[in-house]
Automatic annotation (TrEMBL):
Name assigned to this protein: Uncharacterized protein
Xref: PANTHER family: NUCLEOTIDASE YQFW-RELATED (PTHR35134:SF2)
SUPFAM superfamilies xrefs: HAD-like
Gene Ontology MF term list: 5'-nucleotidase activity
Active site: D12 (nucleophile), D14 (proton donor)
Pfam families: NT5C (PF06941)
Length: 232
C-alpha cells in the first residue's frame, strides 16, 4: 500500500513510459526476417499481428526479454520524464504494469535509470506468463489493473490499452487513454464517460495541468480528472 498525502496517479509502463513495441519490432525483424512496423500492431495480442498461437507469441516475448533489445535498447517515451517531474510536488506517481515478475528487477532498474526518484513504487500484474499466457485467465500469481489501482488508492491511471482503461474506469475517477496506436484507435464497444484521451506527454502537460490543488487537504484536481473531493 502506498501511503501519500498527495493524490496518487497510476502510470502504465509499456507504450506510456517505455517504447516497448519499437524495441520488440527491431528484435522480431532481426530474428525472423519480418518487416513489421508500429502501425501493424492493431492488437496487443501479438499472435494476431505476426501469426501463430498465443503460447508461441508468449515464448517469443520471453526470449526477447533476454536480449539487448530489451535489456539495453528500451527507450523512454519522449517528454515523459520532464512532465512527470513537473507534477511531482502535487501528485504521487506509482507504476502499475501488467509486466511479469521475472522482469521485475530489470524493470525497476530501467525505471531508476530513466525516471530516477519519480515513482514511489511499482506494482506488477504478472500477465502473459509462460504457464498462463492468456492474460484474462484466473491465476493466483496475477493481479488485475483495477486491483493494483485500488491497492495504491489511485484517483487516476494513465494507460494505453482500451481493455485496461475500461476495467479501471470502475475503480478510479478518471482514466487517461494514452497514445494514438492502431490497437487503441477504435475500441470495440466504446469507452466509459470517465475515460479521456491524451495523445502524448506534451498534450498531457498542456491540457492536464493541475489547478487549485491543496496538497494537504487533497480537495480538487484538474487535468481532465474533474473535481475530486478526497475528504469523503
Amino acid at each position: 500500500m502506498v501511503h501519500s498525502e498527495k493524490p496518487v496517479i497510476a502510470v502504465d509502463c509499456d507504450e506510456v513510459l517505455a517504447q516497448f513495441l519499437p524495441a520488440l519490432i527491431r528484435y522480431h525483424n532481426a530474428k525472423y526476417s519480418t518487416t513489421l512496423e508500429l502501425k501493424d500492431f492493431h492488437s496487443y495480442r501479438f499472435c494476431e499481428v505476426w501469426g501463430g498461437t498465443n503460447e508461441e507469441a508468449t515464448e517469443k516475448i520471453h526470449d526477447f526479454f533476454e536480449t539487448d533489445h530489451f535489456l539495453r535498447d528500451l527507450a523512454p517515451m519522449p517528454g515523459a520524464l520532464e512532465v512527470l517531474e513537473s507534477f511531482k510536488e502535487k501528485f504521487t506517481f506509482v507504476v502499475v504494469t501488467s509486466r511479469q515478475h521475472i522482469i521485475e528487477q530489470a524493470t525497476r532498474d530501467w525505471l531508476q535509470n530513466y525516471f530516477p526518484n519519480v515513482f514511489s513504487d511499482a506494482l506488477f500484474g504478472n500477465h502473459w506468463t509462460k504457464d498462463s499466457p492468456d492474460p484474462n485467465a484466473i491465476n493466483a500469481t496475477k493481479r488485475t489493473k483495477p486491483e493494483m489501482c485500488q491497492a495504491v488508492n489511485a484517483i487516476a491511471i494513465i494507460d494505453d490499452a482500451p481493455s485496461y482503461a475500461v476495467q479501471c474506469a470502475d475503480v478510479v475517477k478518471k482514466v487517461l487513454l494514452y497514445g494514438t496506436y492502431s490497437y487503441n484507435a477504435n475500441p470495440e464497444g466504446g469507452l466509459p464517460a470517465n475515460v479521456v484521451r491524451t495523445v502524448d506527454w506534451e498534450e498531457f502537460s498542456k491540457t492536464c495541468l493541475p489547478k487549485g490543488l491543496n496538497r494537504h487537504t487533497r480537495r480538487s484536481v484538474s487535468c481532465g480528472l474533474a473535481v475530486i473531493d478526497n475528504s469523503t
